[in-house]
Amino acid sequence: MNKIDTHNSKGGDERSTATSLLRLGTRLKLSRQTRGLTLKALAAAANCSESLLSKVENGKISPSLPMLHRLVEVLGTNIGWMFEESDGEEGIVFRAGARPLIALDPLRRGEGISLERVIPYSPGHLLQCNIHHIEAGGESAGPIQHAGEEVGYLLEGAIDLMVGEKTFRLTAGDSFVFNSELPHWYRNVGDERASIFWVNTPATF
Amino acid sequence: MNKIDTHNSKGGDERSTATSLLRLGTRLKLSRQTRGLTLKALAAAANCSESLLSKVENGKISPSLPMLHRLVEVLGTNIGWMFEESDGEEGIVFRAGARPLIALDPLRRGEGISLERVIPYSPGHLLQCNIHHIEAGGESAGPIQHAGEEVGYLLEGAIDLMVGEKTFRLTAGDSFVFNSELPHWYRNVGDERASIFWVNTPATF
DNA sequence: GAAGCTAATTCAAGTGACTTGACAAGAAAT
DNA sequence: ATTTCTTGTCAAGTCACTTGAATTAGCTTC
Question: What is the ipTM, given to two decimal places?
Fold first, then answer.
């Protein structure tokens, strides 16, 4: 029996099976998108077809365990996280070092960058918040533009932050605010890892 | 002369023309996306081709004034907004130690607390952001409730954060997120100053 | 162990949103 | 008037993702 959820269940169970499938799919999709991967890319990396992924993400089928395992491996999460119950009331506090870490796809989102998720995914959040860890020499890929506002605080290291036409050299403790419409990107200019606490409005992904 | 920007200019101007075109395009695109319209839909509403819109949004061509007028009309903005210089440019970066510091009224807001303003007060900000410095033994006054969402990160020290019915002990590096409607307050439980990087959506959401 | 089922997986074709390039129609400059 | 712009259209192309039919793998059950 390879699948996650048996279908021997009948009647009332069917529905909850369906929604849990969908939740799994949603999380997988989110993980993928956060990393800037396309279905094709992920399929290649996890050695399966795009089609399969599409169906899994949309809750049409449930992946086999080996399959799911390969997926979370590529995505850098763990299976547990995919099934964690949504954090109503709990999940207010997240401990240092216990937050999910996501490596970005170097080609699409930037070189040597990983995101530490501060706000877990669940629909209805007004804010998006990650700690960007940038290895020495790392930099974000091409400028990004979207609606909203960005605010951040440099926890450690030194970066050049480019916003609009200007470049700013930031060191630990410096902060910034700007309109997301302005194209922006950054580069680690120190010898060590730089970390930025970064918050922005709507998660218009 | 139908276009926005003349091309008689030569040399150095060309570049700025190009970027201003791109900015216009970006804003148009943003307006469209915010409204959830596709190129096709907008094209139909503004009576032009998708292709044209695509080019305008990508700064490949500049729309004629009548065209632009129809666009902003459908999008419900005005032409002026499309060209407004974004206020930003200045006031993007705030240096550690150079941010305005505000001592809270002990009676009304809390004991031994000062706020370091990260986002300057000015209308039109979507976010509110302060670093809360809490002296040893200090605590916020009675619980606060408002609409929106809060996210924070403990920069240094140790605090007890009370949200709803629960209390959490936080140390440096821990983070939290919660709905602003939940009553919340905090207390410094360490021997030294505690600092929290705190972001919230303004009540006007 | 073969027969039969069910559900995961694939391949190939389809769709929707956007882009690009070749060309037509107007204005502007000569 | 003719040449040279540039906006605008049409049709073809691309990219990311979906859908559907066909195949395959993994159990059950005889």
Answer: 0.63
